[in-house]
Task: structure prediction
Amino acid sequence: MFWQEDVETLAQDKLQELQLKNLNETLQTAKKSQFYSKKLANIGFLKNLSDLKNLPFTEKQDLRDAFPYGLLSVDLSDVVRVHSSSGTTGNPTVVFHTEKDLREWANISARCMYTAGARKTDIFQNTMGYGLFTGGLGFHYGAEKLGMMVIPIGPGNSQRQIWFMKNFKVSAAHILPSYAVRLYHAMRDSGVNPKTDLNLKIFFIGAEPHTEELRREIQDLYGVKAFNSYGLSEISGPGVAFECLQQNGMHIWEDYVIPEIIDPDTLEVLPDGQDGELVLTTINRQAMPVIRYRTRDLTKIITGVCPCGRTHRRIERIKGRTDDMMIINGVNIFPVQIEKTIMNIPEAGKNYIIEITKQNFMDKLNVKIEINDETFGGTLEELERLKAKIQAKLKEETGVSPNVSFVDRGSLPAAEGKAKRVYDLRNEKK
Amino acid sequence: MPYHLSVFLVDNKPGKLEKITKALDENKINLRAMSLASAGDFGVVKLLVDNPEKAYEGLKKQNLTVTKRKVTAVEIDNVPGALHKIICKVSQNGINIEDCYGFLLNDGKTAAIVLEIENSPEVEGIIKTLGLNILDENKLYNC
Result:
């Protein structure tokens, strides 16, 4: 049932004791870095966990400004690995790991997968990108720690993915939700029915915010249980929070991080159950602890006890990011609202992108959806009906009247890493 | 029953139809007849070809969205009023025609009228009462 029963079922008061102790140790470690030696100069020993809310936040920009070594809290010779998130503008953010950091990270990754039902007898195909992106290596070492046979295939090349799944009777896979949809169509084209021809049972899906509707769709397509995964490279990577068999919220590992939910405008800490931005403090990392890191991810802490027996609190599926909110003629829209709407229309294709353009000084929301053989009946009337239906449902959900268009399968940009769904073209010259 | 192919045409833009004709050319498919209907920014192309199975695979390989749709093809004399007779009969029976086009046969002596009709298998019987010849697959695809 449990990977580490004593830790996973530790009573909340004991868990908080542990958190306070580890938080104080972490603060001491962090102060060895150039960045926190200044930022936390006046912070002494914390007597209560609630004192955490008086500490300053750390932002993504701080990590960029401190490039490359400003947040490093140990001697460089003790660092054994660096990961980096894509820096499209300015410096990338880099994250350092000691040997112990990697061990702890592998352990919580293993715990995540075990929590979702994976066992050492499983054959695991890791379709996430290896390299600087944390999705691949993070789960790779976790899966090895758990004892599964790992196929480190990496992303892309659908035919090869299918070949391995078939020949090695792969039972568990780590996959981007957008790629799962794409791979399914590749299977259909090759005459492979994942439900009868393959041995897949568990999918770990993450790295992209996705909806409950897309999860169900993936489960239906493949006949698997798909578990939502949460993580971010600044904290280490995937494995920070994970769903248990209940599939009702992700247990955030409170021996690894301390979660807080804040109001992104007032920056006040909100009680459990209220929607806000997730703020994380690492309490089990050496090379680069981060204190009150603003994730920009919007969620809430689910109140109540989980029937699975784990005491670590759960966060709800990520609703969006404070920085991916689209403002269309003054209306706030999150990409997940659009995904949810599309997923709820069975005859609509499941691959889509959102484009925002400007026409005559007005913002225009354009949704492009791939059409596929299952949804294309062959008549113009059907397509017009479907288009009108999608338009109406999107308007209902978002309050904005979108432009819906259909595109051929395979004509949307394929995702190697995270699927890029939103293209804001408002500032581009035609 | 013979069928034609219905191809989804995205983005009514130069070069889109070319993708289809190129796929036909590369697969040595002969086009018997075609029709194109568009609704603003997208459209549907219907293709009647000599080897629909091969054409279907060839188009799909280009990532085009294709479906097979059954058709009823009737041979009529190439004289005024011949089509009118069929259409009257079909409409009298309350049958809706989804799509219709024609092409000449036998050096222009007769013509093939291709009707796409959904959910009305009785249409063939009705047309036969007019004493007209329903073209079979071989004749429609090849003659």
About this structure: The first strand of chain A starts at residue 79 and ends at 85. The mean pLDDT of chain A is 92.
